[in-house]
Amino acid sequence: MIKHLLAAGLLSFSLQAAAQKPFHQWAATPPMGWNSWDCFGPTVTEAEVKANADYMAKHLKSSGWDYVVVDIRWYVSNDKAHGYNETDAQYNIDEYGRFTPAVNRFPSAAGGKGFKPLADYLHSKGLKFGIHIMRGIPVEAVKRKLPVKGTNVTAADIYSPEDQCRWLRDMYTIVPGKTGSQEYYNSIFEMYASWGLDFVKIDDLSSPIYFTEEIEMIRKAIDRTGRKIVLSTSPGETPLDHAAHVQQHANMWRTVGDFWDSWEQLKEHFDVFDRWNKWRTTGAWPDGDMLPMGRIGIRAERGNPRMTAFTKDEQYTMMSLWAIFRSPMMFGGNLPDNDAFTLSLLTNKGMLEVLKQSRNNRPLFNNPQTAAWTADGPGNSKYLAVFNKADQVLIEEDRAVWKSQLIDRKNQSQQAEANISGAKKLYLAVTKGGDQIDWDHADWIRPTIYNGKDSILLTKWVKASSGWGRVSLNKGVSGSPLVVNGQRYEQGIGVHANSVVEFDIPEGYTTFKALTGLDNAAAMQNTGGTVQFFVFTENPAGPAPAETTNVPVNLGDIGIRGKYQVTDLWTGKKTVQTGGQFSPLIPRHGAGLYKIEAIK
């Protein structure tokens, strides 16, 4: 019997259903909401949270958007954009070592009220309230030996400095099994529940180290409150070998690192979602991370104020892929700044139908040029998402006149020197180092050309592209100072893979030199930061693909035969067709999302 169940693919489903916990019903469909991170980083204020909540209540709540999440470091009074203030951070912490909201940023928290007044405001509008926290116990609580509520031990009795987060050192690890460890987590969630918390995103919890025992302590602490608090683990990618565990203890978990408005990062989600697809079940959702749409980067930890760098076609791709995969959707832009197009995407009834009602979701194919996903809809209907992933090859590496070794956190820099005799053009290129492009921040330090007696520091380019953000002069692509191998430089160019910077070269210059290196913004991270540098004297790009292409799908593969009706879910247009192949014309980087119903 077991053998037949395995062959039919039913045993895995049965085991997942049996593993369902009551808390999975708290997120019966993928959570949808707004998070402050992409636009305000660690600096969001109460007024900004309320403005986004007001917009959500008016324009989005009727479509199912209801979570409002205050992201990182709401407990610091003097944080900053483009990084974190770890020099003289002003922490707000109570007598039991629990962080409390910074009153200068959240005035309603004064008098020990915490986030309750803000949560009450959201609840009065029919919305739900969430916060971001870091795994562990505050370093400040350990230093001051603050007591753990309900015990006779202090924070100094339950911590370890091992495995401290590399990119933000607010917290120490809590040692599982020690008296006071579970009690500390109990105490913070008691406080959060008293505020009226509905959602918690916990960072430094799942990658690159998966903290199994701390996740279990958190799960116990949430359940003990009796309040329905949705648990989201971060960052990603969550290790696949812990998929079963995270599915049984969390409502959503990250499948990628921080996702920004980069086509390269978006394209990676096709492979990511393929490998995570089997781990989705009701109430437990693999999370493709936030939607970097609308106006972002206002005071972000990385990047400058901008409307999303995604084209409209790329936004259709993102929303179609998130819907057919059934990823949670957390919008990252400042909602009051939305334009009509952005609002139309968020409220599209067909897309939301796929997100909320589809089942048996699965990829049909995924190749370098195209991809398709399908799912079952109501009755005998099928949903279909098709994608045109075709790209121009930006960098044909074999034509380079110089290339670096692989640059990563172990080998962070290399001196570049290239013969450019006779060249009229110079192209400085950086590619991802064969892995994902998480944190691939790279610097060209003092890029200079020489003719034997004179030199020119390259500061004015003809054009430039960056995989994320904007190519930056004399600063890293994230807006921070140029730092390589711990040394700060005043002159250079900051980029993010994949990147090409083009220069015109005066006649007679024969040599190019620069220090190439991984920017500190990447080197300080837990994961990512692997790049390779190249120098070209001719355009390194390959031929451009067609602007549109047909993406054929064999409808027999999804159980549709004969005559059928196609509804374009983005436009609402309906057509009747026949034949075994459906082959819509899709723009490059674009997508189509359809509902297909057989006509008897």
Map the helices and strands:
Layout: H1 2-8, H2 10-19, E1 32-35, H3 37-40, H4 46-60, E2 67-70, H5 116-124, E3 128-134, E4 137-138, H6 139-143, E5 159-160, E6 171-174, H7 181-195, E7 199-203, H8 212-225, E8 230-233, H9 243-249, E9 252-254, H10 263-276, E10 285-287, E11 295-296, E12 306-307, H11 312-325, E13 329-331, H12 340-346, H13 349-357, E14 359-366, E15 370-376, E16 382-388, E17 402-403, E18 413-419, E19 425-432, E20 441-450, E21 455-457, E22 463-465, E23 472-473, E24 482-484, E25 487-489, E26 492-496, E27 499-504, E28 511-518, H14 520-523, E29 531-536, E30 548-550, E31 553-554, E32 564-568, E33 574-577, E34 581-582, E35 585-587, E36 591-598
Parallel strand pairs: 1-2, 1-13, 2-3, 3-7, 7-8, 8-9, 9-10
Antiparallel strand pairs: 4-6, 5-6, 11-12, 14-15, 15-16, 16-36, 17-29, 18-28, 19-27, 19-29, 20-21, 20-26, 20-28, 22-27, 23-26, 24-25, 30-35, 31-34, 32-33, 32-36
Domain Glycosyl hydrolase family 98 putative carbohydrate-binding module: 452-568
Keywords: Disulfide bond, Glycosidase, Hydrolase, Signal
Catalytic activity: Hydrolysis of terminal, non-reducing alpha-D-galactose residues in alpha-D-galactosides, including galactose oligosaccharides, galactomannans and galactolipids
